[in-house]
Structures are given as structure tokens and as C-alpha cells.
Structures
1.
Amino acid sequence: MRMNRRRFLTLAAAALSGPALGAGPRAITVTDMAGRTVELAAPPQRIVLLEARDILTMSMLHPDPARLVVGWAAVERIDSDDLHSAYSTGFDIALVGRQTPETVSLEGLISLQPDLVVATAYMAPGNGAGALSERLAELGIPVLFSSSFSNDAAGKAPSPLEELPRLMHMWGAILDRRREAEAFLTFHQQKIERLQKRLAGAAPRKTYFEVGSLYDDCCWAVGRDIWGTLLEAAGGRGLDAASSPWVAKIQLEQLLAEGADVYIATGGGYANTTRPAIGPGLPEAKARAGLERLTGRPGFHLLKAVERKQVHGIWTGLITAQPLNLLFLEVAARWLHPDRCHDIDPNETLAELNRRFLARPIAGPCWVSL
């Protein structure tokens, strides 16, 4: 009898001290965009986004991403009141910072008791070795980077298209939505391959692709990296004078001398009295009026692209939200090479993204033309 009791107690102690099958959270290992491998105790339920527009990437994989977000920063860079409202209405998402790293409130962030902070190289400099990341590590709060490169960094930025699979795999692991990530990447690759076939052998067309199109300023042209890389993938090329990595300030005389075939401006919902109001849910007529106003700046009537009515505009989200880069590629390719890409339909692609992937649909206009 005593032996049976001792045996029972031994087995009971082992059961209590050992892992319970099927009970408790499951740890996950994630490799972020900075190449860091981080272990999370469980799929996170209280995420802070230091770049609020990351919710658009989450939205491609998760049916209700805002439910997992307790705080965010840089909401202005979503650049759409329509999308900001779609993701924040009904949720208490605290603002922990504005558009620059020094505005991030460490105390406010910690008070939210996050189980994950998703940062970028710009909003948390150092890619894990900076003061913010180190302080969070001391507190046991894991940090992952959704971007490892900022416009303050030296060297060549990675291609957004090459980085996209790693980004989606990272979010697929974080959200425990790996199958959804693979489905999106398969869809994306099929669209890219189709576009590449149409553009094979096409001569790149010189394009004035303007970063931050403002009514009272000129002339900021895309550089070689990021925006410039995407322009090249769409069958275009930047200005000869825009040789810097990110953006180049071009004098009007130089812009006129370049003789660009096409002019692509940018706009959005944020501060849209100073630039074209192009973006989800905004009136298309207002967007087009904004483009007209840009072409009315001093000397713009002399631009080759303006004379030939090759003037277009995009919502910045098509560039800054990597999963939406596909839409920019398709619409820009149609503008640059209409003879080759007449059957490429970015409106159809947006409809499919809304139907198959996005938690909240993205409305137009995301692009306009004169």
C-alpha cells in the first residue's frame, strides 16, 4: 500500500512539473528583416507598431489585425484617413509616438504591457543595438524589425521586391498565418512574372517620378534605391541628374533639360491641402484637380511630359506598403508601356487583393491621370 502511494505521488509530481500536452502557449521563433532571430513565448496578442502602416501588411494575413495592436506610432504615414479609421474604429490603440524616433514615448509604450514591439531601422535606430531596443530587452519585451534600412543609412538599400518574401514570412510566423503568407506570395509572384514577360526587351522610359509632390515646392526626384528600383521594375528609369540613393533635389532648368517622357506625382490623405489628395476614399475629381495644380507650377507647362499629357499621380501607400508595390508596378507599367501592358489591369488586381487577402478593403482612387 505504501509503495503504491509513493508511486502515485512520484507520478503526480512528474505530471505537474513536466509540460502538459496541448496546454499552454506555443513558443515561436521569428527571423526579422534585420536578420535577427527572436523567440516569442507565444503568438503575440498585444503588439505595438512603431510604424503604424505595418498594419496594412498584417491585414494581408490576419482577418482582424487591429485586435492585436495596442499601440502605434507614425499614423500619419498610413497617409489615408479612410484606412486609419477602418483599422482604429472600435479599438483602443494608443499613440506612442509621431513620425520621428525622438517622439517615441518609452514610458507610454511600456505602460501598454506589450508582448511584442515591431520597429523599423528609422524609428528605432541600431537594428536591435540602439537605446530603445536595449531598454525593451532589459524589460523582457521582444523587438522585431519590419525594415532594416532607413534613408539615413549608407550603402545601397535592398530591393523591395526581393525583400517581400522575407517580410511576409516574418509576419506569417508572428501571426501564426504561414499558409496565408504563402498564398499571398504565390499570387504576387504570378502577377510579377506576367508583368516581367510583358516588359521583356522594352526600352526603359525616362520618368520624372516625384517624391513629395507639393504645390509650393519643386523638384524632388526619386533616386536609385527603393522608389527608383520599383520604377525600373515597371519599365521606367529615373532622371540622369538623380544619382543619389533616395531622393534628389533637381533645379527646374535641369528638369526641363532632362526631357522626361512621363511625369508621375505622389499624393495622399495627410496634409492634402499642400499636395494632391490621392488615396483611398478621396474624391477622384479632387485628386485630378491636384494633379492639374501641380502642372501649373512655374515652368511645368514646358515639360515634355506635360505637353504630351503624360501626367499621372499615385497614392504614396503603393510604395511605402510593400505588399501594395504590385499595384504601383502594374499601373506604372501601363502608363509607361501601354502597347505591351494593355491587358494588365491594376483595378482587377486591387479587387482580388480586397477579395482574397485584405482584412479591410482598399477603395480608390489609388492612382489618377490627366
2.
Amino acid sequence: MFYYLPLYIFDSFSLSNLLGCAIIVLIGYFIYKFNIYPLYLSPLCKIPGPPVKNFFYGNVRVFEDSELGERLVNWEKQYGSLFRIHGFLNRTFIVTTDPKVVQNIMTTHAYDYRKSRQLPQLTDTIGEGLLLAEGNVHHRQRKMMNPAFSFANTKEIVPIVVRISHQLKEIIMNQIGDKKEERITINSLISKATLDIIGLVGFNYELNSLTTKSELAEAYDEITNTNKSYWDVLIILLSGYFPFVRKIPITSNIRFMNAIKTVGKISENLVKERKNKIAKGELKGNDLLTLIIKLNEDLSKDEKMTDDEIKYQIMTFLAAGHHTTSQSLSWSLYFLSKHPEIQDRLREELVQAFPDPNFQTTFDEIEHLKYLDSVIKEILRFIPPVSLLSRISTKDEVVNGYFIPKGSMFGISINTIHHKSSTWGEDANEFNPSRWLDPEIKSKVTNYTYLPFNTGQRSCIGIKLAIAEFKIILAVLIRNFIFKEVEGHKITTVYGVVTRPVPDIDLFVSKIGV
């Protein structure tokens, strides 16, 4: 009887039955992994947090009813400085605004928390460069590149930023022409200007995005495209769990991967061309790429970066070096248009400092403008470039009395930290640059209560360059133009990899004195 058992089973338990059982098992596993365990059995369930209202989206559905920033601020008030939320497929995020926890994650034990790869399109866009490198690799890359971002080198690139800023000014002047004012979509112009700047200061490469069609600019337009359909967004979310989804040959995936290939190809060619010219003694530049290649040549074999690593640094500089600055500049013009009294006060300071509208400036001159500095700091507080930093723990630990198992996802809510009334006063939810002139407020600002550029070992290596670029472009624009909001043009804040406006920002722009 035993000898015929397999045949008996096959006869009575058909292939369709086996398939049905397999499907039931898979569904059961899916329900357990993405619903029962994270919502009811995980140790993280002991951490307080808002209720989950959707099987697939966790608390994400809530974000569609109200902006994420406001919702996180409210949850922090309700549940405290450490609380739990659920993302797509109920992935648990431990959100924190506690300065001590932030210090532990970002500084004290920074390399015990790795960056999340939940958004593989970010890895595709910037490669395994400084922004995503981990542990000893990150430490080695950062140590090698630090000299390239010194104050001395930052001061030397200021004339390039000034030139491109005035080029942007002339393009806006021409768009206005003889009219009293012109409605201009500001994001695109500023993005092209910052891309041209990073091309020159980063690689001594004339992209000319402001004046001509640029293959690189078009590639980044596709990568950062905000007009995504529901299915495009779903593919992005699914690819964080199932990377093969990005390989499905549908139109959006094909466009995205072609754009990534363009960025990678241009970056690779830049490295090859620059190394050849340096080897032949044909190039003596102070752009970041040249400095990095020269610094790399002086290192031991174990410390040197490979050509691929250098290529990834270029991809990182191109993406992080222009996109975050352009978004912050666009936001600054938007809020200055909504607060004309602040815009007027800033313009008064700029006119006094630079009577000539075609002014040239130095790093030291622009750094001494106190109200400009306050406006820049306030926009970076009010709308931080990155609203939520994610980290994954690599060890079991206890945080604020809660057991946190290895592999848990932390979310440092920078936007919430930047809107705490205990630090910023009762008007924390208002755009008010004058707070930065208040000694009492300034005394409360630390690396863990104000972190627009991150903090600790993973802080932005190009912070000095980014702030100088931000100040110069904004100074040139406010010195030469008046920006007014377009009534009825509603802007929504979208919290993604970078905090961005949707739709693009349209403003009425007029020339000074016209």
C-alpha cells in the first residue's frame, strides 16, 4: 500500500488543488508578514502611535487628507517624542524628535545605523557615493574628500556662482521684457541655474542648461518628475520591497532607467576625460572633481577610491548639489512673495550693501548680511530640504524604555523638530526670519534641534558651498526683482526624498523701479 501512496495522492489531490493550497499559504504568509506581525505581534507594538486605517498603506492614506508635516507635528504632541507609524505594507517606522535619541543615532553611534534602501530609485540616481556609503567606506571617502570642500576652495568658486546668478537674472529680465510684470514658473529656471553651477564648480563642465537644451538637465527632469500617476507611485513603493518591479519594461520604468543611464554615462566620461588631462598636464583646475582626483593620487592603495567610486561621487554631487538647493530657493521666493514686508526688508539690506544691481560680491561680503542670513536659516527651518531621515538599526537596543530589535527603521522627523514651540517659540508654525536675531531663541539652537543639513558624521559635506550658493542667487534675485504670489495658485507640500512643491511655483515677477 505504501508503494502506491504517491500515485494515490496524485490521483486524489490534483495539481489544481496543490496550486490552490500554495496560493492560500502565500496569502496567509502575506497577511502574517504585512499585517498580523507588524500590527499585533512585533515588540514595536508597545510604542504608542496612531491607529492603522488601511491594510496596504498603513498610515499613508492619512497623509492624503493632510500634509505629512502637519500630521507628524500633531502626532508628536499626542504621543510624545518617540512614536510608531506604519508605511506602505505596514512597514513600522519609529519616529523620534528626542534630541538625545537623535544624537545617539546621528553622532554617538552613527555607524551602528545604516541608511535605508527602501527607495531604490535613490540608489539608482546617485550610486554608491558618499551619501549612501556605509561604515568604513563612508569614513574613508569622507576623509579623502574633506579638503575639497574647505573654506578656501568655497571662496574661490564664488565668482562662478555670481556669474550664473546674473545670467539667471538676465533671462528673467528678458521674459518680463517691457511688461509691468510676468507670470513665471520659477522652479525650472532655478533648477537649471543650480545645475549649471554644480557643473562648473564640481567638474569645470559647461552644461549651459539655462540657455540651451541639456541632455543632463532633461535626464534630471525625468528622474525628479513630480507628475506621476497612481501606478507610477505604486511601482516606486513596491520596488522598495521587490526590486524586480523596477525592471518591468513599462513606459515609466523605461524612461526612468534611460535617464539614469544618461547620468551614469556623462559621469563616467567626466572621470575618464579629467584623469587623462591631469595625466598629460593639460589641466590645472580647482573644481571638485579635479581636486578629488589629485587628492586620490596621493593616497595609499588601500585608501584610494576606484574610478567607479569617483563616478558615484559625481552622481551624488549632481543630484544632491543642485536639486536640494533649487528647491529651497524656490520655496524661499514663494514665502517671500506671501510676506512682502519680509521681502522688502531683505531688499533694503541688499540695496544698501549693493547699490549696483549688477553687483559682484565675495564670500565674506555675502556672509556679513545678517538679515539675508536670517532669511536663509528660516526657510531651511520652515521647509527643511529633507523632512524625514531614515536609519536602520544594526543591533538590538533599548530606547526610552522600549526594546528595539535589530533591523528596525527609525525616522528622525526634522520637520517636526523644526516646528517645536519649546525651541522656536509660540510662532514656530509661522515664517519669521527675525527669530534668528533673538538671542533667547538662538541659545536653544543646537545640532539636534536644527539640522537642515543633517548632523554628525553624515552631515552634508558641501554645506558651506550650498549656503553660499543659496545666499548669492537669492541676493541677486531679490535685489533686481519683486516677487508676488499668484492668487488661487494653491501649492501643496510633498514630503519625499526632497521636500518639494506641487504643482510648480508660479509667481508674478516685476523689475525693480518699473
3.
Amino acid sequence: MVRWKGHEGVSQIARELHRDKSTISREIRRNGWQGPAGRRYRASTAQRKADRRRLRCRRPRLMDEPERRSLVVRLMRDEHWSPEEISGRISEERPDLAVSDSAIYRAVESGSLDCELPGHRKAARLLRHHGKRRHRKGSQERRGKVRITHDISERPEEASSRSRTGDWEGDTVAGGQGGACLVTQVDRMSGYLVGGKAARKAHAEVNEATERALEGEAVHTVTLDRGKEFSDAEGLQEALGAPVYFCHPHHPWERGTNENTNGLLRDWFPKGESLDDVSDSEVQEVYDSLNRRPRKRLKWKCPWEVYHHQSLHLL
């Protein structure tokens, strides 16, 4: 058929291709064209015509709808929301544009969305612990000892059950070696994030940033890990007027809300990159963005809404 230019008979072509001659005639009639010297046919042209017809006849995909597509792309690219977060929040606030997370994932995997996901986080997600070294059973801590004010086992049930706001989990997010770091305090019930930049990852600077972040907020308890930057927990406890509890060694899941939030912060502040030139306003803008990010455990409300008992229009 590739050689057919109106000079070879349909019967001859059918014999060579082991097809019925009516099939050959139908193909030429449907995908050929009328030239000055008669009917013409080219395989590449016929394939393009067939591809166009296939696109027209398939059922439209949800992600082909312009408004839905534009919204999903914006939330992924600008707000760093996951497909599940996007799907959950849209179903709550814009049910007319509802789309499943599976449909979004398919669109991403097919390359049909006009956005690029943050590559530094995508690669890390392949590892369960994001490439962090795990302590072997029986290994000893060599970083120095932190004086424990209260063990997490002493923490009141209201804090452990997330039944109220004002129970905070704290940590730091390191920048370049020896430079500035981020202080993060996350409310256990709502996931609401406060904090800011500290000039050094040292107890004086970290305490100051923590006190500044929690000023004016309800503080019933604070739960920290055993990092040396929290070695002055007694001073922090006195300044806040609330008890400070410490997790068990190598038990980051005991302050899992904070751990998850710090992982999300790495979308904007990759591990190892200096924070010295990042302004306070830039840090606050990122914190605000995370506080407006819907969470599955909050039934697709965002931390700001749960913490402040108000609704926002995010879409």
C-alpha cells in the first residue's frame, strides 16, 4: 500500500498484504486523497488522519477540562500540594471540579500537565527515610547530653490525644553547616506552624526564636527532641510558662506532626543549602503557604482553618 499511486491494482495489493480487497479499497477511500492524476495514498498521512480521529472519538478525560486542569497545575506548581491534597480540597470547596488523585497522578505520569514537580523532593520520596542514616540497635548517642526537664511519658493525655490546640512539637531545620537554621513549632491538633529563622543552631538563638514565635499563642505543652540546641530547656520552660517534654532517643515519630512539616519545608529549603541570605519575610511566606495547605487527617481543612476556627477560600 505504501507503493500505491493509482497504478497498481487493488487486487494485487490485497494479495501482497494478505488482506481482502474490500479492506484495501476502504482504506484508500477513507485515508487517501484526490490528486490531479487520480486517487493518491501515503501511509504517514493516513496514520495522522487515524490519530486525529481517535482523539476526537475517545471519551474526554477529566484533566482535559481547562478550568480543572489550570487549578490542578497551579496548586501543584505554586503551592506544592500533593495530588491527594488537591483532590481532597477540591471535593470540599469546588465539587463541580472534583477529580480523583489517581486521575491527577495519571496526568503527571503521562507528561500531559504543563508543570514540573520539585525534583529534589521527588527523588527523596523513593526512600522511606529520605536517605537519613538509621541508628542501629544498641548504638550509643555521642552528641552530648541534654538535661531532660520532663519525659514524654509524663505528658498529659489532652496533649497526647490532640484534643485541644496549644500543645506544640518543636524542632529545627538546618541550613548550611554552622549557619542559620529554621525554628519550627507545630500545633499537634491542627498542624499549624509558627517559628522563624535563627542566626545559629545554638540554644540561645533557638530559644529566642521559639519564644518570639509562641508569643501571644496558647501554650499548654512543648515537646522537643534531644538535640543540643534545646539544652537550655529549663530557660525555655520558664520563659513560656509551660512544661517542656522530651521524646525518647531516636523516636522521631513521637513528634511526627513536626517531622512531617519539616519534610514539607524542604520543598523550599533543600538540605545543605545556606539559609543565611533568606529573609524573615521569605520564611514567613513559606510558613503561611504550609498553613494554607489542606491535610487529609483534618478532612481536607488546612491548619490555619482548624487553629483559628474559621474557613478560607483557597481555590
